[in-house]
Amino acid sequence: MISGLIHVARSSDAVVIESLADTLSALVAGVAAGLVGDAVIVTGAPSKALDTVAEGSGATLVVYPPKGDPWSAGARAARRDWLLCLEPGDIPAEGWIRTLDRFVGTARPDVGLGRMRRAHAGLPARIAARSERVIGVAGPRPGDVVRRERLLAGLPFSPRLAVRMLAARLDHI
After folding, report:
1. Dihedral sign of CA atoms 152, 2, 140, 69 in order
2. Rounded to two decimals, what is the model's pTM?
3. Which of 40, 61, 92, 117 could pair covalently with 74 via S-S, beta carbons 3.0-4.6 A apart?
4. Sign of CA dihedral 19, 126, 3, 93
5. pLDDT over 90 for what percent of the chain?
């Protein structure tokens, strides 16, 4: 099983809150399939709307300190060994459950990170993602499936993790 970590950078934006609800709704299929065990909403600034969404969905709300790392803060609250990093508006495309289930079920102990494709990412982000296939990953991005222990050890990842590209894709609303 995995935990969904959703980093909300702008907690006061109503559109972002709506997108967060859509992302949480998309994870329900993973819950029904037995893949997703819990969800953690991570933000730098608490808001009443986030409290409401977290309470209504059963997600844990974590407020990380200024200059802190949202992914590591979320990893401390997560209950599963693998974490799916997302941002509001990310919707896993068809087939994601089978792909992630196979990945976390068969990953060797030295494999610490899998990456879903994000076609909606901008050109600089796509170029950086391609270069990380060669040089390794220093930290997670939305769309990554990461071992919880790697995030709890702190960032940057040391040694840099090799990226395993997954056949799954994230869409963005």
Report:
1. negative
2. 0.90
3. 40
4. positive
5. 65
